[in-house]
Amino acid sequence: MNFNDYINKETETITGFCQTNKEIEIEKIYNEGFSKFDFTFISGNTNTPFKINGICEVKTRNVTSDYYAGGCLIQLDKYKSLIDIVSKCKNKEKNINKDIRAFYLVRYTDKDLLFDLNHTKMDAIKFENCPKHTASNGNNTYEFKPVFYIDPQQAIN
Q1: How far apart are CA 79 and CA 81, in angstroms?
Q2: Of the candidates 7, 3, 12, 13, the residue with the CA atom closest to the CA atom of residue 32
Q3: What is the mean pLDDT of the chain?
Q4: pTM as predicted
């Protein structure tokens, strides 16, 4: 899958998920370039007067949700980037009254799972042999990367 195919697939995942979850409104899609996350959204589904401002990483997997025995795989660098971005956003004066959170959306062939990473328990880091790049021309190399497996029961949808 080349980079443009990858972008189109992730955009389909984002728009499809938000169409079926009407309380989530896309603010901006960033996955058209090399960004640390794929989109931002605003959600009105909250018990407080404040809406949730989400910064979200998206993965579209071509396997079922039970493919990875350990749960939903997220790379440590993606997780750390999201947490760092949220922290920087929260430290801006204009965001003082905003509820800003990191999210991870995974689309499998059988379902979508959305995780609020600010309220997700992360287990021990493992090292998995993963593609060096998500998008490739078919000649992708693999390398061991630090990852977490998230229990699918922690998904919020």
Answers
A1: 6
A2: 7
A3: 86
A4: 0.87
